[in-house]
Design a protein that fits this description.
The chain is an all-alpha fold. The protein is built from 15 helices and no strands. It starts with a helix and ends with a helix.
């Protein structure tokens, strides 16, 4: 078994990345709620809960899916393990144990985020405050992420980045699924102005709208955006980019070469497949089905990491 430090580092970056993604999911729901919801579309807040994997926990606590309840549940609720508050709290608890394993700036970034979210949690807020809360979360996570760059490129660094890209791969796939859950499979809506508008909102929530326009000079279409978020190796949130970074940081680990090789072999087929896929074949197969399969593969990989290296 590896030092417990490796597992703490792995989860610190996962929790911080998850906090950002939860905030981005809320931002997607908020932006979509500002536009008309035509017949044939699901409630955008139900869609956000479904994509975050929190809908059952939410329904155990709340009878109706109401915007204010969803916001509070995903941002501050102590009973929701994936709330922004709990993610930052758990990252801080782990960082407190291994604070000598990374830079003082990394610890200060996490601790500052925790102290500030405590103040936010104790203040009453309205729906109009949500954009400020999501922007604050993204800023705090980016501050922490920036402090990682000064670390030694050793196993500790690789575990931090491995956790980051495992979480981002899962979360990018879930953000893509928000679009699936919002739009019911009715052919008349596909390719419509509302369809393209919602794809644009997803890009803006990922801070990728300008990057997309730069990479795909021309009109915004669902197929192009799907290609950008799934297969584009230059998009830092694409599924392909995440998988390549997971593989890179995994094989850079110097600990337990035999176990690392075993874990890599379980991921190799996904890495090869996603490098060879074409977006047309993915769309034909079904984007939701492809994304669901991808999420399952990442979950199995995470299980392998814990079984082989942390237990």
């Amino acid at each position: 078994m590896l030092s417990r430090t490796a597992e703490y580092l792995y989860w610190i970056s996962r929790y911080m990345e998850r906090a950002e993604t939860t905030a981005r999911l809320l931002d997607v729901g908020y932006r979509m709620s500002l536009f008309p919801n035509p017949k044939g579309y699901n409630n955008e807040w139900e869609s956000v809960l479904a994509a975050s994997g929190s809908i059952e926990n939410y329904k155990n606590k709340h009878k109706d899916i109401i915007q204010q309840h969803v916001e509070d549940f995903l941002f501050f609720d102590e009973e929701n393990p994936s709330s922004v508050y709990n993610c930052i709290l758990n990252a801080r608890n782990n960082a407190l144990v291994v604070r000598t394993s990374f830079t003082p700036e990394s610890w200060l970034a996490i601790n500052k985020a925790y102290q500030e979210i405590l103040k936010l949690k104790n203040n009453k807020y309205s729906t109009s405050d949500l954009p400020n809360l999501t922007e604050w979360t993204i800023e705090q996570v980016n501050l922490f992420r920036g402090t990682i760059n000064s670390l030694l490129r050793n196993d500790g660094y690789n575990f931090l980045l491995l956790g980051l890209f495992v979480e981002r791969a899962d979360n990018s796939a879930r953000l893509l699924d928000v679009k699936y859950f919002v739009l019911l499979p009715k052919p008349e809506y596909i390719g419509s102005d509302i369809d393209n508008m919602q794809w644009s909102i997803l890009l803006r929530s990922l801070s990728s709208f300008r990057a997309f326009r730069w990479a795909y000079d021309g009109e915004i279409t669902a197929t192009k955006i799907a290609d950008f978020l799934v297969l584009n190796d230059n998009c830092p949130r694409s599924l392909s980019y995440c998988i390549q970074n997971i593989v890179a940081h995994l094989i850079n680990l110097k600990c337990s070469p035999t176990k690392v090789e075993k874990i890599y072999n379980s991921l190799k087929d996904l890495n090869v497949t996603i490098q060879q896929e074409k977006i047309e074949s993915i769309v034909e197969y079904g984007l939701h089905e492809f994304v669901s399969k991808f999420i399952n593969k990442i979950s199995m990989f995470d299980t392998d990491i814990h079984r082989e290296l942390f237990n």
